[in-house]
Design brief:
heterodimer; A: 346 residues; mainly alpha; ABC transporter involved in vitamin B12 uptake, BtuC; two-stranded antiparallel ribbon; two-stranded antiparallel sheet; 15 helices; 3% strand; globular; B: 289 residues; 73% helix
């Protein structure tokens, strides 16, 4: 009993001293809480559906950020991993009747293998070359998908997959919990030793190699990790929509994830997640005027870029928080002195 | 069969070459990856469609007007949207994607998504070794070649060309030598968009006009540029013809080839890059910072 009380008081302490002191952390906390509590308040299937799709694409966008934002391996063909995950899950589910909890991980595994395969040629390329080469891969696969319609269903794709779960609410909880879990894992990865090496590879690869670190290994690892998460997103999407089609591999899909991530702010993980949860429902909202939907979307993205090129969410964060000049710990802008070292803030 | 392949590859190759050279120019001079490049090609096609069908103007006049109009649109959008964010590589990338989407959607609203066509300038055909070659195809090929020649002269024989080449070579030193770098970038953007518009103008009688027609050329153009080596004009030229040829071969020789044409062309690009990561004619910069 005492032990439980100790842990509860420790948790409360953490919330009070670590979470409530910074508005950005409060926002993240409320975001978690909101997503987990929402089905208790409303069971509107349309709203749940939007949030489910947002969660799936949030995983996808965050995985792009892990590869392209953190490691700096600009990928223009991220739809490849998504599509491979979706198609593998669909094939396993329809032909071998493997239930979703088995087919999605296998789909992710296939995406990891794809990451390895495309990672090897891409290791020799840099920057713009890499971006343009990765763009090619999903299109190659798309051509193959169209060329063998007996296996892949061609234009129509593979339909009739099993549902994730019977009810909407169960579907919702599966995707949202998976999303929150995976995004936290990705955020933790970027915070770990490996993540710091990823960072360093983006900033100066030669220097990292000079420091005796095998950059080839870490770059391949970034491809595989990113492929894994994107593959899970693809598998979830296939099982939720009960369809794996060519639209999963299209160029627009690859571009969309780039738009989301850069809009939300790269090299953050939380940026792309937030961006998807802003932009995706917004896009649904524009469905009221279907003809101008994508136009408005593109215009908003253009305008945001003109005024805050580093992304929306980091810009907002810099408005409400500032870094202590001495100890580099973040504080609310309203504070006169740093909350840790009590140095003058300005 | 062989002649079919050659004709189709020469025409497609020429169009890709014009597109790729424009893309390569602006990348070399200003380090802008202009995803919206082929959207200008689509805009030009629609301008010509509108001119010939709705206004009843003469096709040649329409083509000239389309090139001028699209170049102006390109310069305006460059000033408004691309120039302010040029220093942020990632932002510029999605800026140009968004720009392309904006053009696509505007065209979709004005003209709807229907497939449209423009009549050829000249009727009739020629029979060479038993293969029908329409005059329009010959004309397209001829015009494309003369445009390429004009670009060649512009780049190698004029003072402007010298400025463009030196800025592409080293932006900072060019600036130190008294070249107004942002003005050169602006002019290059104009030339580049103009080339895109021109390629739209020459291909439009042979192509189907719809708002999504920019996607496939975009991919082939990027592949050609990467294959040839980024920023290298000669590389883009050769790369475009190689890909055009590969595409035509696949379409004519392999069953279900129309689906696989992009795949094979892109696979060739990847294979070449495996052996020469800087492309066929690219120069490997030692850590371009």
């Amino acid at each position: 009993m005492d032990l439980i009380r100790f842990y509860i008081s420790k948790l409360l302490n953490i919330i009070k001293n670590e979470v409530l002191v910074l508005p950005s952390r409060v926002v993240v906390f409320l975001f978690f809480l909101f997503l987990l509590v929402l089905p208790l308040l409303t069971e509107d299937p349309y709203l749940l559906r939007i949030l489910i799709l947002s969660s799936i694409f949030a995983i996808f966008a965050a995985s792009w950020d892990l590869l392209s934002g953190f490691t700096g391996q600009m990928s223009f063909g991220h739809a490849l991993f998504f599509g491979v995950g979706a198609y593998t899950a669909a094939l396993l589910n329809t032909h071998l009747h493997i239930p979703p909890w088995g087919s999605i991980p296998f789909g992710a595994l296939a995406a990891v293998l794809t990451g390895l395969i495309i990672g090897i040629p891409c290791l020799r390329l840099k920057g713009t070359y890499l971006a343009l080469t990765t763009l090619a891969f999903p299109i190659i696969l798309l051509g193959i998908v169209f060329a063998i319609p007996e296996v892949t269903g061609g234009e129509l794709g593979i339909s009739g997959l099993k549902r994730l779960a019977r009810s909407h609410v169960a579907n919702y909880y599966i995707t949202v919990v998976v999303m929150l879990g995976l995004c936290t894992i990705m955020w933790k990865i970027t915070d770990s030793n490996t993540g710091i090496i990823f960072h360093a590879i983006r900033e100066d690869e030669v220097a990292v190699r000079a420091a005796g670190i095998n950059t080839t290994f870490y770059k391949l690892m970034a491809f595989c990790l990113s492929g894994f998460f994107a593959g899970i997103a693809g598998g979830l999407y296939a099982h939720f929509m009960r369809l794996a089609g060519p639209s999963n591999l299209e160029v627009y899909m690859s571009f969309q994830v780039v738009i989301w991530s850069i809009f939300g702010g790269v090299v953050t993980i939380w940026g792309p997640v937030g961006a998807v949860f802003i932009l995706f429902p917004l896009l649904e909202f524009f469905r009221l005027w279907p003809e101008v939907r994508i136009l408005l979307f593109a215009v908003i993205v253009l305008l945001i870029l003109l005024y805050m090129p580093q992304g929306l969410l980091p810009w907002l964060r810099d408005k409400i928080e500032s870094e202590c000049p001495r100890c580099k710990i973040r504080n609310v802008t309203t504070r006169k002195t740093c909350r840790v070292c009590a140095a003058e803030m300005h | 069969m062989i002649l079919d392949i050659i004709i189709s590859s020469l025409i497609n190759g020429s169009v890709y070459a014009i597109l790729a050279i424009g893309f390569s120019l602006i990348f070399g001079v200003a380090r802008i990856i202009n995803i919206a490049h082929t959207a200008f090609y689509m805009l030009a096609s629609y301008c010509i469609y509108y001119g010939t069908h709705r206004l009843g103007l003469h096709p040649v006049l329409c083509m000239l007007l389309a090139v001028i109009l699209v170049t102006i649109i390109g310069l305006i959008s460059y000033k408004l949207f691309i120039d302010p964010i040029r220093e942020h590589e990632a932002a510029m990338l999605i800026g140009t994607i968004a720009l392309a989407l904006v053009f696509q959607e505007i065209m979709l609203i004005i003209f709807s998504g229907d497939f449209r066509g423009v009549p050829s300038l000249v009727e009739g055909f020629l029979v060479i070794f038993g293969v029908k070659v329409s005059y329009q195809q010959l004309l397209t090929f001829g015009v494309a070649l003369s445009v390429l020649a004009a670009v060649w002269v512009l780049l190698l024989k004029t003072r402007l060309g010298l400025a463009i080449r030196s800025t592409a070579n080293d932006r900072e030193v060019a600036n130190l030598m008294g070249i107004d770098e942002s003005r050169v970038a602006m002019i290059t953007m104009g030339v580049s968009v103009g080339l895109a518009a021109f390629s739209g103008a020459v291909i439009v009688p042979l192509a189907i006009v719809n708002p999504f027609m920019w996607m496939h050329p975009l991919i082939m153009m990027m592949a050609a540029v990467t294959l040839g080596g980024l920023g290298s004009i000669r590389g883009s030229f050769v790369g475009a013809y190689i890909l055009g040829f590969a595409e035509a071969m696949v379409v004519f020789l392999i069953p279900a080839g129309a689906y696989l044409k992009g795949s094979v062309a892109l696979s060739i690009m990847i294979l070449v890059l495996l052996i020469r990561p800087e492309g066929l004619f690219g120069i490997a910069f030692e850590e371009e910072r």
